[in-house]
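Budget justification aside, the reviewers requested a transparent look at the raw inputs and outputs of the sequence design task funded under Objective 1. We therefore reproduce one unedited record. The lines immediately below are the structure tokens for a 209-residue chain.
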């Protein structure tokens, strides 16, 4: 069986009104790229419609795909702990992903995360742009290379620019840091230091609130 290609852009599915409820409903039927057949469901962003802070990850993982909610699995627990440590209340933020379907490959019974490619990132970007327009956060926090490169360009390097305030029209304050999954994937001996560095980057955000 061939892969259904999708239309090439989520823009084909945008609703006439850019409000979070109408976006969420429209995104549930998105076929902007072939991933609509790979993931179980569209995992749209969630959080406060008037959030001061928007956090953007890469794409839903295995547990997010099942739950239909962003950052509820292992990476979400790291994010929760880091936000806590930085003094940021997650319930006052809006949390979403650059790509809204889970891309995976079977390895035995497990579904292994696959990084979204440039075409998938481009196809899905209209949802993220619409969320930005609807929420209008004062502070935009890009978690990892996929989120940062989707919005800031492919030459952007998180390792060089993390924890700094960036010049951008996307929001009053824009910053990038590592993805919480990188802490889980990294050397166990370095986990504590990597977590502390992630918290330090988020403290830059906390100071703006
Ligand atoms: N990783 C992400 O980037 N987003 C999620 O929602 C979960 C894991
Ligand atoms: Fe649409 Fe994004 Fe899902 Fe592709 S990944 S089908 S563009 S919501």
């Amino acid at each position: 069986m061939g892969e259904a290609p999708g239309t090439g852009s989520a823009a084909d599915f945008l609703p006439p009104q850019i409000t979070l409820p109408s976006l969420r409903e429209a995104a549930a039927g998105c076929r902007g790229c072939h991933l609509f057949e790979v993931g179980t469901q569209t995992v749209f962003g969630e959080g406060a419609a008037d959030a001061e802070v928007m956090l953007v990850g890469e794409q839903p993982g295995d547990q997010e795909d099942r739950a239909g909610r962003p950052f509820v699995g292992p990476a979400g627990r790291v994010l929760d702990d880091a936000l806590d440590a930085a003094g940021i209340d997650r319930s006052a933020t809006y949390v979403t992903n650059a790509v809204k379907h889970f891309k995976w490959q079977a390895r035995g019974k497990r579904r292994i995360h696959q990084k979204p490619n440039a075409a998938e990132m481009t196809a899905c970007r209209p949802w993220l742009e619409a969320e930005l327009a609807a929420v209008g956060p004062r502070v935009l926090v890009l978690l990892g290379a996929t989120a940062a490169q989707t919005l800031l360009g492919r030459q952007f390097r998180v390792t060089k620019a993390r924890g700094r305030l960036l010049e951008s029209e996307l929001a009053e304050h824009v910053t990038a840091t590592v993805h919480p999954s990188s802490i889980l994937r990294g050397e166990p001996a370095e986990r504590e230091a990597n977590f502390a560095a992630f918290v330090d980057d988020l403290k830059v955000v906390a100071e703006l609130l």
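The chain is about 40% helix and 15% strand. The pocket of iron/sulfur cluster (ligand 2) is lined by residues 6, 10, 27, 30-33, 35-36, 42, 99-101, 123-124, 127 (CB under 6 Å). Computational costs for records of this kind are itemized in the attached budget.
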